[in-house]
Amino acid sequence: MHMWKRLVRAVRSFLGAAVSNIENPELILEQNIRDLNDQVPRMNEQVAMVRANMSLLQKERDKHAAQIRELTAKIKAAIQLGKDEVAAQYAQRLQTEKAALAQVEAQLVLATEAYEKALTVKKAFMREKERKTQEAMSAIRDAQRAQWQAKVADALESFKVTGVDATHDEMVRKVNEQAALNEARMAMALESIDTPSVNLEEEVEKMQAMDLVKQMKLEMGLMEASPPEEVSPAPEKTLGKKVNLKS
Predict the structure, then answer these.
(1) What pLDDT shows up at residue 52?
(2) How far separated are the first and last CA of the chain, in Å rounded?
(3) pTM of the entire structure?
(4) By the 8 A CB rule, do 78 and 84 touch?
(5) pLDDT > 70: what percent of the chain?
(6) Would you call 89 exposed, middle or buried from its count of C-beta atoms within 10 A (0-12, 13-18, 19+)?
(7) DSSP states of 146-185 as a string?
(8) Average pLDDT of the residues of the chain
(9) Which of 47, 54, 24 is nearest to 143 (CA)?
């Protein structure tokens, strides 16, 4: 007996696991929505049948009521004509019609109540259907969003697995090292340039340019030539001459 229970429990667990693996909540919810929508035509058909039964009873009631009015008029006419036997025959038919009318009216009351209940049930069903549909659609959207998030997570994890994070840091370090090396080479190149010589050459070029402008103005008569500057005689050289000194 104990072995049998263990076997049953093992089979149930196996079947439960198999069902869990097969079940897709999203597909099941979509099927539930379709099932709810499929029930609407059947419910409308049932409500229509109840409504048709009520309509038939109403017509039958109106028919008996018309017969009663007609028989009542005939009875009164027979009495006025002094035909009591004919009036009695009409009276018997009148009693039958009244009994039938009473029965139909009782059935019509029940049919009317059934129709009102059917409308109430349909209204409750449609409200519950709408609630379950909205709930299922929300769950389906949550499931789709969860699937997308899972795909994003898998993508991010694959980036790490393929070594993107490791190579990223390494490449950034290499770029920074190369930039620092280039900056150092630029600084060394600037330091090797003879700045004073360059500046002197620039001044000489400027002076030559000014002299050229001055010469062109002289040729154009825009300015007079300045008198040459007097040059003082150079002092006599005494190097190598013997100077007599008076004692």
Answers:
(1) 94
(2) 159
(3) 0.48
(4) yes
(5) 71
(6) middle
(7) HHHHHHHHHHHHHHHHTTHHHHHHHHHHHHHHHHHHHHHH
(8) 78
(9) 24
Question: Per residue, what are the HEC states of the chain?
Answer: CHHHHHHHHHHHHHHHHHHHHHCCHHHHHHHHHHHHHHHHHHHHHHHHHHHHHHHHHHHHHHHHHHHHHHHHHHHHHHHHCCCHHHHHHHHHHHHHHHHHHHHHHHHHHHHHHHHHHHHHHHHHHHHHHHHHHHHHHHHHHHHHHHHHHHHHHHHHHHHHHCCHHHHHHHHHHHHHHHHHHHHHHHHHHHHHCCHHHHHHHHHHHHHHHHHHHHHHHHHCCCCCCCCCCCCCCCCCCCCCCCCCCCC
Give the separation between CA 41 and CA 34, rounded to whole angstroms.
Answer: 12
Give the phi and the psi of residue 235 in degrees, each rounded to 5: -65, 145
For residue 59, the model assigns a pLDDT of 95
pLDDT digits (tens, 9 = 90+) for 186-236: 777 666 655 666 677 778 888 888 888 888 878 787 777 666 555 455 555
Smallest CA-to-CA distance from 96 within 132, 67, 116 is with 67
Please indicate whether residue 179 or residue 104 has the higher confidence score (pLDDT): 104
Tokens of 56: 């038939």
Handedness of CA 137, 143, 146, 151 (dihedral sign): negative
Report the Cα 157 to chain-centroid distance in Å.
24
